[in-house]
């Protein structure tokens, strides 16, 4: 959680110093008159003081603030105090092992010599999830693996991740401790066991069973779903004990999936793995089965239930050109979608995709003759499962550019350093518009990219005013266009300066919704959230060469939290 706080501070710092230059040297504040901050940490349900909580005071990144983070612990009455606090804006963040973190923190402003008192921090107590794992006959299943999954936002979509794991006892019972408030899915999976004739006969079907099908107990989501799409979520409130969360394991036909890797052996292929990932509403590679190919390049998966899957052949990516960012990461070698129905699958061939070569050209519709030598075209890895590394190429003076050795994968194209007064009107790949959809090269490809620039960029500026609910006008302004990329990119943001003023330049014409917010978090890239929160924003039409001036009132943080909660999202 503290990483999220630091990330938010960095975002605001980047907005405040958007020039890309090094920040100015911070002034010496050793002689400045300092202030103090005190407050109390309590249980959000009972109001009782929390002893021994860690309280951090993080300075909001800004040009003139010379301060370091401070930390202290609460006393027996829940109180805390920071002395010698330089003037500036700070975030107060508290945490204690038996409680959920306080999130990004409360913002406080300290003037020279000011005593900021009675800061109230509430921590929400953690809950539990408990129950039993039973087989279809109602018998307890001992030693089953129980996994709790949570959701988070990444690249504009909700993703699934493992939060906790445990095992069942002799009576099939399990307990998941220290569960923070939020929405979760729970699944149980028995230890692998060979199928028996009684297992096969236990499943009644309307059609004859295939000869190669095995029936066995398989991973089951609460209460008794074979897939995540049919699972019931658990909405855990602060301090809630969700008992009797019983999971009824299901028997299902399982199959074998076999194939081989077809490739010239390289470092990447020698270290390759094959993953079999179910396709569904929530992308998550943690639900995948993973194997390493044998020396003869063959691979096999057992205990595969019916459904739609994607096979991924993944290796290690290295440096393959002077323009590639240094570093190593996952490299997509091959990808294939399969359907597992009534029979085993065999004979699958995963042919390694060759590196991708693209050519491109940048054009400008009007105005004096321009040189495009400063324009940069970036390829940012995107998609549900992210592979490859960032790659950026420089355009030539005539607008032409070439991309070599691009890893297969999905990419978002980012064009920067465009000529003054221009904006990106469209991006096409082989004459298909990919301006917001992005570039899908996960199955290989090649061709030409056309970037069309147009003169007429606009400016949006104005003022953020405080309200009774939110007296602090600092924060950020976000402009959300009607058309947002699948990964949630395309929004514009600027930090609110002293006096509540803000300025956003190089705005493409179109319709936007404007928000003044306390802080930016990943939920502002989630498209369902943006659609839901739209009614709370200010509608704005931006014309070519326009200069729009608007006045915004700070959106209450509670509105952000409540909107995210209705969608099962985390706004922290």
Throw out a few tags for this protein:
572 residues; Immunoglobulin-like; 4 domains; 7% helix; flat
Condensed summary:
This protein has 572 residues and is mainly beta.
Helix content: under 10%
**What is the average per-residue confidence, as pLDDT, rounded to a whole number?**
83
Number of helices: 5
How many strand elements? 40
Which term fits the overall shape? flat
The overall number of domains is 4
Structural class: mainly beta
What's the CATH class of the largest domain, please? Mainly Beta
Main sheet properties: 5 strands, antiparallel
N- and C-termini, Cα separation:
8 Å
Portion in beta strands: over 45%
Instruction: Write the CATH homologous superfamily of the largest domain.
Output: Immunoglobulins
Query: Radius of gyration from the CA trace?
Result: 27 Å
Give an overview in words.
The protein folds into four domains: 2-123, Immunoglobulins (Immunoglobulin-like); 126-202 and 209-352, Immunoglobulin-like (Sandwich), CATH 2.60.40.10; 356-455, Immunoglobulins (Immunoglobulin-like); 458-566, Immunoglobulin-like. Mean pLDDT is 83; it is low at 1-31, 194-211 and 318-328. It has 572 residues and is mainly beta. A hairpin with a 2-residue loop joins strand 30 (422-429) and strand 31 (432-433). 7% of the residues lie in helices and 47% in strands. The chain is flat. It starts with a helix and ends in a 6-residue tail after the last helix. It is built from five helices and 40 strands.
């Amino acid at each position: 959680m503290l990483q999220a706080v630091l990330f938010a501070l960095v975002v605001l710092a980047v907005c405040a110093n958007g020039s890309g230059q090094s920040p100015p040297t911070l002034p010496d504040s050793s002689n400045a008159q300092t202030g103090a901050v005190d407050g109390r940490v309590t249980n959000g349900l009972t109001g009782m003081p929390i002893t021994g909580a860690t309280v951090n005071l993080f300075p909001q990144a800004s040009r003139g603030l010379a301060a370091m983070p401070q930390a202290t612990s609460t006393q027996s009455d829940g109180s805390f105090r920071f002395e010698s606090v330089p003037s500036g804006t700070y975030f107060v963040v508290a945490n204690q092992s038996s409680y959920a973190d306080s999130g990004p923190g409360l913002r406080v402003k300290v003037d020279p010599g000011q005593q900021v008192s009675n800061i109230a921090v509430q921590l929400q107590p953690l809950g539990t999830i408990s129950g039993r794992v039973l087989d279809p006959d109602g018998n307890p299943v001992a030693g089953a693996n129980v996994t709790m999954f949570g959701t988070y936002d990444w690249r504009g979509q909700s993703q699934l991740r493992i939060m906790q794991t445990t095992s069942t006892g002799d009576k099939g019972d399990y307990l998941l401790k220290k569960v923070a408030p939020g929405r979760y899915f729970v699944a149980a999976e028995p230890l692998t066991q060979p199928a028996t004739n009684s297992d096969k006969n236990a499943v009644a079907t309307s059609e004859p069973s295939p000869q190669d099908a095995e029936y066995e107990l398989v991973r089951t989501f609460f209460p008794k779903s074979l897939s995540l799409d049919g699972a019931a979520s658990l909405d855990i409130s602060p301090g809630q004990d969700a008992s009797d969360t019983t999971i009824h394991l299901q028997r299902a036909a399982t199959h074998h999936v076999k194939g081989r890797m077809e490739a010239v052996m390289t470092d990447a292929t020698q270290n390759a793995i094959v993953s079999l990932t179910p396709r569904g509403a929530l992308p998550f590679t943690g639900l995948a089965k993973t194997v390493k190919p044998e020396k003869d390049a063959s691979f096999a998966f057992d205990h595969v239930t019916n459904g739609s899957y994607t096979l991924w052949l993944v290796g290690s990516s290295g440096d393959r050109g002077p323009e590639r960012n240094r570093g190593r990461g996952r490299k997509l070698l091959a990808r294939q979608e399969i359907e597992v129905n009534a029979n085993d699958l065999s004979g699958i061939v995963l042919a390694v995709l060759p590196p991708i070569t693209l050519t491109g050209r940048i054009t400008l519709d009007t105005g004096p003759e321009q040189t495009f030598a400063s324009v940069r075209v970036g390829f940012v890895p995107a998609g549900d499962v992210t592979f490859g590394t960032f790659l950026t190429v420089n355009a030539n003076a005539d607008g032409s550019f070439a991309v070599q050795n691009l890893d297969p994968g999905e990419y978002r194209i980012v064009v920067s350093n465009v000529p003054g007064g221009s904006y990106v009107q469209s991006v096409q790949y082989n004459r298909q518009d990919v301006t917001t959809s992005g570039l899908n090269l996960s199955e290989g490809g090649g061709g030409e990219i056309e970037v069309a620039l147009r003169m007429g960029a606009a400016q949006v500026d104005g003022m953020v005013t405080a309200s009774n609910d939110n007296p602090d006008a600092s924060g950020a302004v976000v402009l959300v266009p009607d058309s947002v990329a699948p990964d949630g990119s395309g929004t514009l943001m600027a930090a609110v300066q002293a006096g509540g003023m803000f300025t956003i330049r190089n705005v493409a014409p179109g319709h936007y919704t404007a928000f003044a917010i306390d802080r930016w978090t990943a939920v502002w890239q989630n498209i369902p959230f943006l659609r839901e929160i739209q009614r709370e924003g200010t509608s704005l039409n931006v014309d070519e060469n326009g200069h729009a001036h608007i006045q915004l009132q700070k959106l209450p943080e509670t509105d952000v939290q409540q909107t995210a909660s209705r969608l099962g999202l985390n706004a922290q």
